[in-house]
Amino acid sequence: MTTKRIHFKFPAKAASQPVVTHLVRDYNLDVNIFHARVNQKEEGFMMLDLTGSDQEIANGLEYLKSLRIEIHDADIGLQWDETRCTSCGNCLNHCPTNALYIPDRSTMKVDYRSDKCVECLNCIDNCPFGACSSLI
Amino acid sequence: MKTYQEINEKIKSGNAVVFTAEEIIDYVEEVGLEKAADDVDVVTTATFGAMCSSGCFLNFGHSKPKMRITEAWLDDVLAYSGIAAVDLFLGATQLRHRDPANMNYPGEFSFGGGHVIEKLIAGEKVQLFGLSYGTDEYPRKEIRTWVTIDDLNQAIMVNPRNCYQNYNVAINCSDKPIYTYLGQLKPNMGNMTYSSAGQLSPLLNDPWYRTIGVGTKVWLAGAQGHVYSEGTQHSPTCERGENNVPSEGAGTLALTGNMKKMNPEFVRGVSLKGYGVSLALGIGVPIPILNKEILKATTVRDSEIQACVIDYSSDYPERRGNVVAKVSYADLKSGEVEIGGKKIPTSGLSSYSKALKIAGLLKDEIKRGDFLLSEPHTMLPTEQGMTPLEIREK
Hints:
The complex is a heterodimer.
Chain A: E1 2-10, H1 12-15, H2 19-25, E2 30-38, E3 44-52, H3 54-66, E4 70-73, E5 78-80, E6 100-101, E7 111-112, H4 122-126, E8 132-134
Antiparallel strand pairs in A: 1-3, 1-4, 2-3, 5-8, 6-7
Chain B: H1 4-12, E1 18-20, H2 23-31, H3 33-39, E2 42-50, E3 55-59, E4 71-74, E5 77-79, E6 87-91, H4 113-121, E7 126-131, E8 142-147, E9 154-162, E10 169-171, E11 178-180, E12 183-185, E13 192-194, E14 217-220, E15 223-230, E16 253-258, E17 267-272, E18 276-288, H5 292-298, E19 306-311, E20 325-328, H6 329-334, E21 336-339, E22 342-348, H7 352-367
Parallel strand pairs in B: 1-2, 10-19, 13-22
Antiparallel strand pairs in B: 2-18, 3-6, 3-9, 4-5, 4-7, 7-8, 9-16, 10-13, 11-12, 14-15, 14-18, 15-16, 17-18, 19-20, 21-22
Helix pairs in contact in B: 2-3
């Protein structure tokens, strides 16, 4: 079993389809949704984990592509701009998974590990310097 | 014993011995105070954090025909124009025109005076919009143009209060989240936030202002600026530890410097949700090691500096002066502090990492002979409190 985290953007036409239901029922995938939103133009964004065999995941992604859905690897969801980050540390207590963290407390420099990020987006609200942003 | 002149001679010859306020701790422990006081010429201190009482005077030069600007906005942020024709003062915490502020609580405050100052120093274009009533010699009544810092005759940062000697640690004892200038505070003492560079911070390394005074040259965001006055709310009379280090705000510095010489890495607009906008600044202050008492004070460690934990949900707004607990910066920097048996996560609003970088940059400038020290012409007051504002009937 493999888990693949993806972030995808779907056009207005696909937004009316029960995409997640198809992924579960027809492609035998477990789906864990972190974030989903449909904007005013009815275009949608979704951030989720797909769990299944490599073949099942590949089939599921093929299905999404057939709907003209843009698929990206998940870590482009949250953007942490190291040059904007001043390492003040205000984000740390608002990041539930310690994706933003201080690896070495003698320098107090903040770092980001995208594999821990669940896109809760608390950091965006709590960064005084606009270092965190999201495509979602 | 050394004099400023002797230290400056060593700096000019490239032979000055300089340590950062972090490095000096181990060095003095290793060689002893006496020997270190002979060896060391300068200790560099630094801080990086939000300093609301900051701003700048800008001179735009004259348009044709001329205008005596009476109302002005820079990137839609109001600038004070009650001075000469084309001089403006822009304050760090001024909101953008029509910012909804806290009408949608908690407000975002995505752009304001601090951000305009950051843009100017980064060399970006800023829109000037000005209005006037028109006079015989200044007939123009309206202006809209775009400028960069290079177009300005002068851009002088003038900050009435920077470098607070120490600062409150904020906590929220209520059952609702609150939004403050020290960040979002979770209910029921869910987190604590602090804002000081601790053992690197300028005035914590010179607790009685023996070398830092009016006229002291400082590293202000990369420019060579100076202390022009005691800072506003300078109130050295307060509780101090055995090492003379205050556990409250205490001393402050008023600083000025040429914005055209500043590095944008150390001048950053700040947006604090539910609170407003501000400006974060990087400041370095060199301490000349004139004698061993001055050196001793620079060896202060995070574990020896205490700060007061204040409840920002009620005691702070109501000016009650209650203190929930006292904690050290060593504890605060560890990421967790225990109060009354409860472990509370901590985080900063001041960047120790940037302060460390600044202390290193200033050290390098001094060692290269590019930064000479200046002797203060007036010392800062050492006995003075802070008067509250009373609300009178008439």
